[in-house]
Amino acid sequence: MTYVAPNSVQARDIASIVHPQTNLDNHLRDGPVVIGSGQGCFVYDDNGTQFLDAAAGLWCASLGYASERLAKVAYEQMRKLGYYHLYRGTTNEAGVDLAEKLLSIAPVPMSKVLFQCSGSEANDTALKLVWYYHAAIGKPEKRKVIGRRMGYHGSTSASISASGKADMHADFGLPFPGFLHTEYPHYYRHHTEGESEEQFATRMADALEQLILREGPETCAAFIAEPVMGAGGGLTPPRSYWEKMQAVIRKYDMLFIADEVICGFGRTGNMWGTETYDLKPDMISCAKALSAGMQPISALMINQRIFDAMLDESRKLGNFAHGFTYAGHPVTTAVAMETLRIYDEMDMLGHVRRVGPHMQRALGALSEHPLVGEVRGIGLLTGIELVADKATRAQYDPARKVGPTVERHARKHGLIMRFVGDRIAFSPPLIITEVEIDEVAARTRKALDDTWAEIRSH
Ligand SMILES: Cc1ncc(COP(=O)(O)O)c(C=O)c1O
């Protein structure tokens, strides 16, 4: 039981806030960690204890935790026009600037941009447009959406339905009917004896095709996926996976939504995961690093085919009946635009390409550790899988809580990491230096050593 002082921020938090992705009962007992400030890749709690954040918050603080330059842009925008909307044909220059910029850097030809405030809303919008598009082209029966087990696309009702996270469906009565999930490409864990990455990828594409055939191709409308799975554990796809999956999507005339919410803006060493894996999506959702996490903004880019169908609907119905009060909010778009300028000026892509291999090597060296089964990643994204037995790839019994134990030791060593089951996903701020990467690896090693010692002492 943690001591929580009366009237402290912790006590007031316990009395007033429901926290996302938190055990509410434990929280009533233990209270929160209060983060007071941040600078570069570090954050500080209310005692001034420093933590190196190897997760960039939630994959989003690409420029670290404080920015004078972005603060000034937000301030100036608030003084000039602190709010306006995009409804009924109104616009503002900040939004237009950002939309143009996004279209100019899109990895495949895109026609228009829709703004929202979060990754969930961008994907929710994409899912609605899937249905709208098929209604517009006279195929209203084509409504089923296929995602992947362990895929994550957000917490709104439709986005979480498209996600393959059973824990996030439980007792919410979700997923909604019409949302299906195919296998996910976790080669290390799920390949059979002697199966190559290519053979595994073929099996994944076959599983998708079988699912479509079982459901009826005439009812299957879209496939949604992250180029690299983030909340699934930082899983990079096996060789030839995307080529084979896209062939199936095309064969059955389904739309493809690339969820670039974590991959977009340099994470994989290219501006988009779509470029890294040669994807051909019809819609691309992005958020997080779009504004370096400093403003709540997301964007959905759609191609001409989707826009043409929407145009037909507007002619028929008289209106595009969808939108959010804060979509294209000028402060969010101005900050996002400045973020993209900063990326250009500092050659963010060049930086990720330089330090990314260093991170893969530094964390890759941990594969020798007795607790580690696999280290695999790309750019500034790495997944480490913990195992009970390296030879058989057997996992620890979840009841042993090995992941949370490593996390607890990491905190003690001043490191914030992100766990998904027994997998650690590393996604530090994109500005991280080689020295800081070495520090992430050293602190991770200490946390693994402490966990290993604890396991052996029981
Ligand atoms: C791939 C992906 N899509 C969508 C989302 C949802 O974004 P948000 O939390 O901004 O709604 C996330 C969040 O982590 C994500 O990782």
In summary, what is this structure?
This protein has 458 residues and is an alpha/beta fold. It has helices at 9-16, 24-30, 56-59, 68-81, 93-105, 119-136, 157-162, 166-169, 187-190, 197-215, 241-251, 273-276, 304-317, 330-345, 348-364, 402-412, 434-457; strands spanning 35-39, 42-45, 50-53, 112-116, 144-148, 179-182, 220-225, 255-259, 283-286, 298-302, 372-378, 381-386, 415-416, 418-420, 423-426. Pyridoxal-5'-phosphate binds at residues 58, 118-120, 123, 152-154, 226, 230-231, 259, 261-262, 287.
Question: What key attributes describe this structure?
Answer:
458 residues; 42% helix; binds pyridoxal-5'-phosphate; single chain; four-stranded mixed sheet
